[in-house]
Automatic annotation (TrEMBL):
InterPro entries to which the protein is assigned, alphabetical: AAA_dom, DNA_Partitioning_ATPase, P-loop_NTPase
Domain AAA positions: 2-178
Homology family: To B.subtilis soj.
Protein name: Chromosome partitioning protein
Origin species: Leucothrix arctica
Pfam families noted in UniProt: AAA_31 (PF13614)
C-alpha cells in the first residue's frame, strides 16, 4: 500500500519545499519508490530536482484540468528511481479553472488513484496558502506533514491549518491525519527556538518528530544545483537530518502496523 503525504503549511518560507525534496530523496535512498508532486506555482520542488518548470512535457496543471493522463506527466529524475510531476506558473491558471469544474476538490485524488500503488510514497509539496490546490492535495493525501520554524508567530497559522484538515476530514477524506510536525531551520542555541519547541511538544506531544532539521547552508545551496542535499553533499548535516526523518517515518509506520 502506498502512502500519500502532503507537506503543508500556509506560511511561506517554513521549509515545505526543502522538506518535500529532501524527504523524497531520503526515502529513495532507503530503497523506497517515490513520486514527488509539485503543487506550487513557484515550481521550486521541480527545479530543486533538476526538472524544467517552464517547459515540461506535461505538468500537474494539465493533469488537474484533465488535458493529459497522469502517466504521461510522470517524469523520471535523472538516472534515479525517483519520479516527479512538475509544477510551475501554469498552476495559478489551473487553480482559477478548477473553480468552475465538477468535483473540483477531487481532481488530484482521482488522477492519483490509477498510479499511486506504483509507488511506496507519494510526496506532495503544497503552495503557501489554503487554496483549491492545497485542498486537492489534502483530499488526495493519507496524511499531512507540517514543517514549521520555531519562531514567535509559528503557532498562529497552525490553528487555521488544523481547522482546514478537520473540515476536509469530515467532508471528503475521513482517514486524513497529521503524521507529524517537523521543526525546520532549528537552532537549539536560540532561546526563542527552544521555548517555542517546548510549547509545541506540550501541545502536540508525540505528533512532533524527534528529528529536528538544523539550519544548514547545504540545504539552501543544493536547489541551485538542481539536486537534493543528499546528492549535492551527502555528508552535510542537512542531508543527514532528512535521512534521520525518513528513518523515523518508517519506524513510526512499522510500529503502527504492529499495533493495528
Ligand atoms: P517553503 O516551501 O515553505 O516556502 P522553502 O523550503 O522554500 O520553504 O525554504 C525557504 C528558504 O529557506 C529557502 O531559501 C530554503 O533554501 C531555505 N531553507 C529551508 N530549510 C533550510 C534549512 N534547514 N537550513 C537552511 N536553509 C533552509
Ligand atoms: Mg515551497
Amino acid at each position: 500500500m502506498s502512502k500519500v503525504i502532503a507537506v503543508a503549511n500556509q506560511k511561506g518560507g517554513v521549509g515545505k519545499t526543502t522538506t518535500s525534496v529532501n524527504l523524497a530523496a531520503s526515502l529513495h535512498a532507503v530503497k523506497r519508490s517515490v513520486l514527488l508532486i509539485d503543487m506550487d506555482p513557484q515550481g521550486n520542488a521541480t527545479t530543486g530536482v533538476g526538472l524544467d518548470k517552464h517547459n515540461p512535457i506535461a505538468s500537474l496543471s494539465d493533469v488537474l484540468l484533465g488535458d493529459v493522463k497522469i502517466d504521461s506527466a510522470i517524469q523520471r529524475i535523472g538516472d534515479t528511481r525517483m519520479s516527479a510531476i512538475s509544477g510551475g506558473p501554469d498552476l495559478t491558471v489551473a487553480e482559477v479553472h478548477l473553480m468552475n469544474m465538477d468535483e473540483r476538490e477531487y481532481r488530484l485524488e482521482s488522477a492519483l488513484r490509477t498510479v499511486r500503488n506504483d509507488f511506496d510514497y507519494v510526496i506532495i509539496d503544497c503552495p503557501p496558502s489554503l487554496n483549491m490546490l492545497t485542498v486537492n492535495a489534502l483530499v488526495a493525501a493519507d496524511s499531512v506533514l507540517i514543517p514549521m520554524q520555531c519562531e514567535y508567530y509559528a503557532m498562529e497559522g497552525l490553528s487555521a491549518l488544523i481547522r482546514t484538515i478537520e473540515t476536509i476530514r469530515e467532508a471528503a477524506n475521513p482517514d486524513l491525519h497529521i503524521t507529524g510536525l517537523l521543526r525546520t531551520m532549528y537552532d537549539p542555541r536560540s532561546n526563542l527556538a527552544r521555548d517555542v519547541s517546548r510549547e509545541l511538544l506540550e501541545v502536540f506531544k508525540d505528533k512532533v518528530y524527534n528529528t529536528a532539521i538544523p539550519r544548514n547552508v547545504r540545504l539552501a545551496e543544493a536547489p541551485s544545483h538542481g539536486m537534493p542535499a543528499l546528492m549535492y553533499d551527502q555528508k552535510s548535516r542537512g542531508a543527514l537530518a532528512y535521512l534521520a526523518l525518513a528513518a523515523e517515518i518508517l519506524r513510526k509506520e512499522a510500529s503502527r502496523k504492529v499495533a493495528a
